[in-house]
Amino acid sequence: MGVKDFYQKHYKKLFWIPILLIVLSLLFLGVKYASTGEIIKRDVSLKGGISANLITKEKINADELKIFLSSRLKTDVEVRTLVDFATREQSGLIIETSSLDSDGLKEALKEKINYSDEDFSIEEVGPSLGEAFFKQMITAMFIAFLLMIIVVFITFRTFAPSLAIVLAAFGDIVITLAILSMFGFELSITSIAGFLLVVGYSIDTDVLLTTRVLKRKGEGSVMDRVFGSFKTGITMVSTTLIALLVAYFVSTSIVLKSIFLIIIVALIVDLFTTWFMNTAILIRYCNKKGII
Amino acid sequence: MKFKKLFSIRVWILIFLLILAIIAIAPKFNTEGVEIKFVDRNSKASENGLQVGEIIKEINNQQVNSVKVETTKGTYVYDVLDTIGFALNNLTLINTNNITKAQGKIISINEKNITNDNFNNMLFEFLPSNTIKIRTNRNSYAFLINKELEISVDKVEKTNLRKGLDLKGGIRVLLKPVTDEEVTNLQIRDLIKVLNNRLNIFGLSDVRIRQADVGNDKLVVIELARTDIEGVRELIEEQGKFEAKIKNDTVFIGGERDITFVCRDDGTCSGIRNCAQSNGAHFCSFEFLITLSSNAAKKHAEATKDLDVNLSGGGRDGYLTETLDFYVDDELVDSLNIGASLKGQEATQILISGSGSGNTRDEAYEAGLEEMDKLQTILITGGLPFDIEILKLDVISPVLGDDFVKTSIYAGLLAILSVGIVIFIRYRMLKIAIPMIFIMLSELLLILGIASIIKWNLDLAAIAGIIASIGTGVDDQIIITDETLKGDEAAYNWKEKIKRAFFIIMVAYATTFAAMIPLYYSGAGLLRGFAVVTIIGISIGVFITRPVFGKIIETLLKKE
């Protein structure tokens, strides 16, 4: 019972870990916004430009190609190579630019690489549309969060425990955003799918915890009920994590990979917000209200 | 015995639904042949009843006939398939295309003497009009053709599941009307109609066009199962406003209101008529006949009645002083002299002309044909109600899509297996791990079954939705299992325990469901697949599979 004793003794201090993480994340995002004008990098689907994907085994020097394409399109071009997970060999190229000249890009590429149209994918987005998508994404996120708050408050009809759940979900999103931003992750239109799922997964464990602690007064002490929930919650997170990790490494689609990555990071963050922050608030609430 | 109890009514319902799902998905094990994706409405194939969706198992045909053409300049022997390769003007070969080098005045074809009168009638004899025999999965067909079959085919789908654009490859275009006025939904519907006609006339099969709104902007999304953007972009972007004017009066415009018939694919009233060289460049001019509505013909009479005749201009009776000018998108493409005999007449038959140019004669010929095709199309469909701007253009490689499908299947199965392993490590009981895997696979099958029934296109976002909802399903099953296992120490009965588990599950369900709603309406519908599939998935979970899992676990864990 080492963990249980340790937790019982220190839960008030542990509470500050996620709080600190949230504050640091908000600070980081604020500084990032002040210096670059956005809290996280956006890919072409949200800011406009071209993103092309070419399947080729031809050995390409990415830097040389980048310089060549940049001079041809007269604007900055980014070139990355894709590596096959199983064989560790180059399987393709990703080319990104803010230019909208897809025909020019195709022509320039044909000069350097021999490829067929079948192997070429391209996404071209006008800047105004990208901006509109980004706004919609934020709105969708905002509405989803609001609806979640309503569901939670209707369900528990008590202020502090409901607020604790909402705070945990908020923390998950903010900390995840900060971590992704720190590592240069590029937000795309499909990322919204990931973040909305984070809201869903995040409150799963919080609801479980709150229900068990507040509504199962006959099943052991508050601490017993917390630990019962913890065991269930950890099982839930570990199955989801393992499934997502497998999917992340096996899948070849960048769209799927980025959705999975967002949820993986958020699930790990959620361990802290749920079991350090939400739980601590709940225990204090129980102590205050005399719930045992 | 417990095993017997396992098959409660709920389990039977699930089994029944699973069978329905498999029937809906309908996996085909025999995928030989090719599936017909598109049949040209005016083709022999369509006349003879070939339909989209049939699977061609066998075709036999395709011979090439050779013709011997004798002219004043020599004898020429060459192979023909669907055209003889030239037209006649007073028995002189004109308008020859690149399958023949014949020239001069014609004498005979295949030893048969040619006169001005019998040429058109005999043309069919010289061209190979073979019996083509097609055997499909539904029927056998045999009919005569003397040109291409005018259908397009693709691999046979192995199931009824529909793949979205990012899994099968193709082009997606998001476009916006450019106008200062407020665009109405009706105008968008007109725009979609014109675009549809245009793309269909060009033989692009598998076209999907729909309205999509982003914020206050009304946009249109076009999806095509093709990957050659160059032609498509031009086809879509061109407004295609056709006007025929005399002086500054518009006589008629493109579209069915003024033009009742446009001749195409018929050498007697449409085709390249003349090729010439000037200043090193080649030009080929084309002509085709159109029929005007009576209204447009009246306008013609009105516009020409006060014009003077210019006798010195040539022609039998001279020409009118003004020409009939053709404009496409306000740019003059050609001018025609109007014969004096047409003055003040309600002309219903008008020859439209134009030309194409190139560095070689062949290039000019091809360009001429292309220009003619374009002009015919905009005359039939009319112009777009407004200028449009392409906002987003995606071309997705079909090779990449195949890879995504394959790896997604691996990823899904591996993920289910590894979840099973984690569950077994945690509970050390196969009677928990096995039902869980069974439920996960059932959910997968039910989601795919519903997607087949509602003909939903599965794209990458939808795959993410499937994985997400099965993931949520596992979480719920763990909650049920733990609530049930806690059983002994608490005094609650089984029903109460399951009910408690369902309370938690329903709250999570309501939250996720709510989160998906805004997504349905945003991003021009690009993430609709994710929202819909996730909602289907979690609903199946809560209303079908979770109750079954509860029952199974209750039966297996209950101490006798």
How would you sum up this structure, described in words?
The complex is a heterodimer of chains A (292) and B (560). With 292 residues, chain A is an alpha+beta fold. In chain A, 70% of the residues lie in helices and 11% in strands. Chain A has two domains: 2-43 and 128-289, Multidrug efflux transporter AcrB transmembrane fold, CATH 1.20.1640.10; 49-125, 2-Layer Sandwich (Alpha-Beta Plaits). Chain A has ten helices and six strands. Chain B is 42% helix and 29% strand. Chain B has 14 helices and 26 strands. Chain B has helices at 2-6, 9-25, 44-47, 119-126, 165-168, 185-201, 229-237, 294-304, 361-381, 398-427, 430-453, 460-485, 494-521, 528-557, and strands at 34-39, 55-60, 65-71, 74-80, 87-89, 92-94, 106-109, 112-113, 130-136, 140-145, 151-155, 162-163, 170-178, 208-214, 217-224, 242-246, 249-253, 259-262, 270-278, 281-292, 309-310, 319-328, 331-339, 349-358, 387-396, 457-458. In chain B, the strands form seven sheets. Chain B has a five-stranded antiparallel β-sheet. In chain B, strands 16, 17, 21, 22 and 23 form a five-stranded antiparallel β-sheet that branches. A four-stranded antiparallel β-sheet of chain B has the order 4-3-7-8, with no helix packed on it. In chain B, strand 5 (87-89) and strand 6 form a beta hairpin. The chains are: A alpha+beta (292), B alpha+beta (560). At the A-B interface, strand 5, helix 6, helix 8, helix 9 and helix 10 of A face strand 25, helix 10, helix 12 and helix 13 of B. Strand 5 (120-125) of chain A pairs antiparallel with strand 25 (387-396) of chain B, so a sheet runs across the interface.
Q: Which structural traits does this protein have?
A:
heterodimer, A: about 290 residues, alpha+beta, Multidrug efflux transporter AcrB transmembrane fold, 2 domains, four-stranded antiparallel beta sheet, two-stranded parallel sheet, 10 helices, elongated, B: about 550 residues, 5 domains, five-stranded antiparallel beta sheet, 14 helices, about 40% helix
